[in-house]
């Protein structure tokens, strides 16, 4: 009998968190891997910024793209290469979850547009409201119509690709989540952030926030738990796992 090993669930590392947070709490890929909590799929981290090979779409169970302090609109070569690969994954129906930068890159990769949000930064714990389409979406269905989520972003998916389905938004950010194809999702918020990480980001950006008229102390006070948003990582892993079960 042939011994077939499951394909890996790949975390595509597109950026690093602040050094102080990284030394104390780990980095994006560590938080995402903990949230995925896959018991059946090996988890592999690749970093296209350092030239890591992007695997063939049929050789992986799924891909999660991390956030980044870079900007999609800068069109860095490693980012554009990853965008081309993302389009291949979507065409192959390989499960994809793009987070923040990954969300924007997914939109860009398929013909949408990513760029500076006209109202500037969105940061802290915000309310995300589901659209009607989320009721039948494989990743978001059965979630509460509104839930809190952690965010920090200057850029957004300003225009979705043709055929994409908007799934969630809020007053500041019209596209907090979308799906394209059968199994590729982007979320502007950070399901991998916990409250301590969110407060850390507010602290790191306090001077810039003050200069923009925001109150970092009030933002830190308003940070709360985001269990519903965090659960999306595990939900995505279950979708990837189900694709690996032999027929």
Could you explain the architecture of this structure?
The protein has 8 helices and 11 strands. It is of the alpha/beta class. The chain has one domain: 3-Layer(aba) Sandwich (Rossmann fold), CATH 3.40.50.880. The strands form 2 sheets. It has a 9-stranded mixed β-sheet, sandwiched between helices. A two-stranded antiparallel sheet has the order 5-8. Strand 10 and strand 11 form a beta hairpin. Helix 3 crosses helix 4. The longest helix is centred in the C-terminal third of the chain and has 17 residues. The model has no long low-confidence stretch (mean pLDDT 96).
What's the helix and strand layout?
Layout: E1 9-12, H1 19-25, H2 28-36, E2 43-46, E3 62-65, H3 77-91, E4 96-99, H4 101-109, E5 113-116, E6 122-130, E7 146-153, E8 155-159, E9 165-169, E10 177-180, E11 184-187, H5 195-204, H6 206-211, H7 216-221, H8 227-243
Parallel strand pairs: 1-2, 1-3, 3-4, 4-11
Antiparallel strand pairs: 5-8, 6-7, 6-9, 9-10, 10-11
Helix pairs in contact: 3-4
Keywords:
single chain; alpha/beta; Rossmann fold; two-stranded antiparallel sheet; globular
Instruction: Determine the N-to-C terminus distance.
Output: 16 Å
Report the β-strand fraction as a percent range: 15-25%
Report on the biggest sheet: 9 strands, mixed
Strand order of the largest sheet: 2-1-3-4-11-10-9-6-7
Task: Write down the overall mean pLDDT.
Answer: 96
Secondary-structure class? alpha/beta
CATH superfamily: Class I glutamine amidotransferase (GATase) domain
